[in-house]
Design brief:
The protein is mostly helical. Helices cover 75% and strands 1% of the residues.
Length: 542
């Protein structure tokens, strides 16, 4: 389509380039001259940080697959008592921030925790020299904690893949007298490999970007290296170089996953809705499956939540403070602003692609979604680089005009956090609105054009009323993700400004988990909302 005025063309490409700017800034800064700080890190600790990061990603991915795949196959292929409750309950750990689980488990399994105290009282041990107990604050402990909260990525995608597998293949396996385990190993698992690979890629990227858990467990990874280099050494150049290394690792991870299945094509005939090919479990197999699934929910969600509720009830007077209310309002204000901006940006780039229709118009949409794969700590560095340059330019201009120096207008205010949240979670809004717009037939656009509607009027009078639900869902998901974001908030928050996530992290880091319990419960409850939305969409699709 040819534009009389290039307004939509400029808007679409403008927002696309703006949201990809932090990623470009990281690589641009990383290509600069190497300073002494980065050289010292490369000569001393960078090898250890890289090995720790690799071990963390591999260990967490293995444990997440170990936890998630059996649950996914049991829910998709077996009949169990209370399966409707189990299907959505197995997703609940995704609402629990990993660092909160880490603090609680450390409190339980430390030398002064209730588990070791009980064992010493039971067996009469007097000191730690009398027995051996695994230390949870290690690389293996961090892998276990992260796997407990991230396995739902594997579970959700693998369960969907198992449920969509061809009925004829499953019936053929039974005719050939394949046991349920052989059917899982030889048919279900190979066919679900693409979905499992995507789930493990999400787990790996979330693990690579985690800061709260690895920081508390004293595991030195590339993420903690970025954080320490920026806040400890105040060296943006070295932090950008480490961030570029992490971005390259993410790119290689995604590329390897796609390359491994480049020639794999699956053409499956879905099962009929009334066709039930699930295995009925009985006896010890049924109880083993129930213990595995409910035990996973208990260890990953129910027991930590009960511990938080216990702390919140007994320390309510100390927790319900003016600071808690102020920081809740801060989180609300920042997250609400970020969600509104993200929805507007997603709406504009999607509508530009709908108006244009050419393949090139997809580029702004793809650019706005690139930030979702970037860890929050890395993204914070990418946001800080252009915003500090903008601040210097603004101060130079205002000083030359004789208006004084306004200070850090962009990098020293909430603007930096909001910008980072929009870049990080804009992909969620773009995807939701894209799917809603795809359901509107092109004939409505043609009818609006024949009636003389300009593009802006068409968007306001035709499309917005029809995609209102999609816009609300997009805004809600961005709002919730922004409320929970810790990594970017730690690096970009202004002075004397806290969000609920940083508030919980600060208290828990100071070994005052009791005072962090109330805001932590609020974060968990907020995190349950997108899980309900996802689970309802899965139920409607099957």
């Amino acid at each position: 389509m040819k534009y009389r005025f290039p307004l939509w063309l400029t808007t679409g490409w403008g927002f696309g380039l703006l949201l990809v700017l932090p990623i470009l800034a990281i690589f641009y800064t990383a290509l600069g001259a190497t300073d002494q700080v980065f050289s010292h890190l490369m000569d001393t600790v960078m090898g250890v940080y890289t090995l720790n990061t690799l071990g963390l990603v591999l260990g967490t991915s293995f444990l997440a697959a170990l936890f998630g795949l059996p649950c996914a196959w049991l829910m998709a292929m077996c009949r169990l008592p209370g399966e409707k409750w189990l299907q959505w309950a197995l997703v609940l750990p995704l609402a629990m921030p990993g660092y909160i689980i880490g603090y609680i488990y450390t409190d339980w399994f430390d030398f002064a925790g209730p588990v070791q105290i009980f064992l010493r009282d039971l067996f009469g041990w007097q000191s730690y020299q009398d027995y051996w107990f695994p230390d949870i604050r290690t690389l293996g402990g961090a892998c276990l904690i992260l796997a407990l909260v991230l396995y739902p990525y594997v579970y959700l995608l693998a369960r969907t893949a198992f449920m969509e597998q061809s009925a004829s293949l499953l019936q053929s396996a039974r005719l050939l007298r394949c046991s349920p385990f052989e059917s899982f190993r030889r048919i279900s698992l190979p066919l679900a490999r693409p979905s499992i690979a995507v789930g493990l890629s999400l787990v790996a990227m979330e693990t690579l970007g985690d800061f709260g858990t690895v920081s508390y467990f004293a595991v030195h990874s590339l993420t903690t290296a970025v954080y320490d280099t920026w806040l400890g050494y105040s060296n943006l150049n070295a932090a950008a170089k480490i961030s570029a290394m992490m971005l390259l690792a993410i790119f290689l991870l995604i590329s390897a996953e796609r390359f491994s299945r480049r020639r794999q094509k699956l053409f499956q005939q879905h099962r009929e809705p009334n066709e039930d090919l699930r295995y009925p479990l009985s006896g010890w197999k049924k109880w083993l499956a129930l213990c595995w699934c409910w035990g996973l929910i208990g260890f990953a969600f129910a027991m930590p939540l009960m511990q938080l509720m216990y702390y919140a009830w007994h320390y309510l007077a100390q927790s319900w403070t003016t600071e808690f209310r102020d920081y809740s309002l801060n989180s609300l204000m920042v997250s609400l602003t970020a969600s509104l901006i993200a929805v507007v940006v997603a709406l504009l780039v999607n509508f530009y692609h709908r108006l244009d229709g050419r393949r090139a118009s997809l580029a702004p949409m793809r650019m706005t979604t690139m930030g979702y794969a970037v860890p929050g700590t890395v993204l914070a560095i990418g946001v800080m680089i252009p915003l500090t340059s903008a601040d210097h330019l603004l101060n130079t201009i205002t000083q030359a005009m004789g208006w004084g120096r306004p200070g850090l207008v962009f990098s020293g205010t909430m603007f930096a956090m909001i910008f980072a949240f929009v870049v990080r979670f804009g992909a969620v809004a773009v995807g939701s609105i894209e799917s809603s717009l795809a359901k509107i037939p092109p004939s409505l656009d043609m009818a609006a054009k024949t009636m003389g509607c300009a593009p802006a009027a068409m968007l306001r009078r035709v499309h917005l009323p029809l995609i209102r639900r999609g816009c609300l869902v997009a805004g809600l998901l961005v709002f919730i993700e922004s409320m929970k974001e810790l990594n970017a908030a730690l690096l970009l928050r202004p002075f004397n400004f806290e969000t609920l996530a940083t508030y919980v992290f600060n208290y828990a880091s100071d070994e005052q988990l009791e005072l962090a319990a109330l805001p932590a419960i609020l974060l968990v409850l907020v995190g349950l909302v997108p899980l309900v939305v996802v689970n309802r969409s899965l139920e409607q699709s099957h």
